[in-house]
TrEMBL record:
Parts of the chain that traverse the membrane: none
Taxon lineage: Bacteria, Bacillati, Actinomycetota, Actinomycetes, Kitasatosporales
PANTHER family in UniProt: CARBONIC ANHYDRASE
Catalytic activity: hydrogencarbonate + H(+) = CO2 + H2O
Record's keyword annotation contains Zinc: yes
Listed name of the protein: carbonic anhydrase
E.C. code: 4.2.1.1
Length: 226
C-alpha cells in the first residue's frame, strides 16, 4: 500500500515499468521508428472516468486524442476563439490524414452541469478561464431547448443534465464542420464525423445517428449479428 499521493503516483509508474512496459516495448519501438499514423481523432472530456483507449479498444498509435472540459469544439469565429482544438483538428486532418473524427461525451458531465447553472454568463470582466471556456457550450444550451437529442425509441430524457450531455455531442459534431479542413474532408468523402456518448453507470457506449437526433447503444459483435 502506498503511503502518500506522491508515492501513489510513482507507484503506478513503477507498476507500469515492471508489468506493462515489457509487453508494449516492441510495438512502441516500431512506432518510434515509423512515427504515428492514427486513423482517428478522438475529442472527449477531461473527466477522469472516461478511458478513450479502453472504450474504443485501441492501443498505441491508433487514437489521436484531444481532451478538454466538456468535449467542446469552439467555432473558428467564436468570441475569445480557441486555437487549441482548432490546431489539433487541422493537424489531425491535414498532417496525419485521419479518416474519422469522433466527439465523445459522457453522462454526468460537470461542464454541462456548470452550463445549466449559467456559469458561462459570468464570463465577462469577472470571468475566469473556466467560465470563458464554457461559453463555447452555449450553442448546446440553445439546441437542447428546441431539439434535444435522445436515445432511439425513447422520449427525451426527463433529466436536464442527460439531455444536455447528449445534445452537446451532436452540437460539437456540427461545430467541427465549421472548420475548413473538416469541411473539405467531409465534402471530398475522405473524412467521416461521428458522435459517441458513454454512460458510466451502465458502462454503455451509444452512437449518434447520421441525422444527429438520436443515439443507439453499441452492441457486442455477436449480439448485433444475431
Ligand atoms: Zn465531462
Amino acid at each position: 500500500m502506498q503511503q502518500s499521493t506522491d508515492d501513489h503516483f510513482l507507484g503506478g509508474v513503477r507498476e507500469f515499468q515492471q508489468h506493462t512496459a515489457p509487453g508494449l516495448r516492441p510495438e512502441l519501438a516500431r512506432l518510434a521508428q515509423e512515427g504515428q499514423s492514427p486513423s482517428q481523432l478522438f475529442i472527449t472530456c477531461a473527466d477522469s472516468r472516461l478511458l478513450p483507449n479502453v472504450i474504443t479498444g485501441t492501443g498505441p498509435g491508433e487514437l489521436f486524442t484531444v481532451r478538454n472540459i466538456g468535449n467542446l469544439v469552439a467555432l473558428p469565429d467564436a468570441p475569445g476563439r480557441d486555437d487549441s482544438v482548432a490546431a489539433a483538428v487541422e493537424y489531425a486532418v491535414e498532417i496525419l490524414g485521419v479518416r474519422t473524427i469522433t466527439v465523445c461525451g459522457h453522462s454526468g458531465c460537470g461542464a454541462m452541469q456548470s452550463l445549466l447553472r449559467g456559469a458561462h454568463r459570468r464570463a465577462g470582466r469577472a470571468g475566469t478561464p473556466l467560465t470563458r471556456w464554457l461559453r463555447h457550450g452555449q450553442d448546446s444550451l440553445q439546441r437542447v431547448r428546441h431539439s434535444p437529442v435522445r436515445l432511439r425509441g425513447a422520449a427525451p430524457s426527463a433529466d436536464p443534465l442527460e439531455r444536455l450531455c447528449l445534445t452537446n455531442v451532436a452540437q460539437q459534431v456540427d461545430n467541427l464542420t465549421a472548420h475548413p479542413s473538416v469541411r473539405r474532408g467531409v465534402e471530398a468523402g475522405t473524412l467521416r464525423l461521428a458522435g459517441l456518448y458513454f454512460d458510466f453507470a451502465t458502462a454503455q457506449a451509444y452512437l449518434l445517428a447520421g441525422d444527429g437526433r438520436t443515439f443507439s447503444p453499441v452492441r457486442p459483435r455477436l449480439e448485433s449479428a444475431a
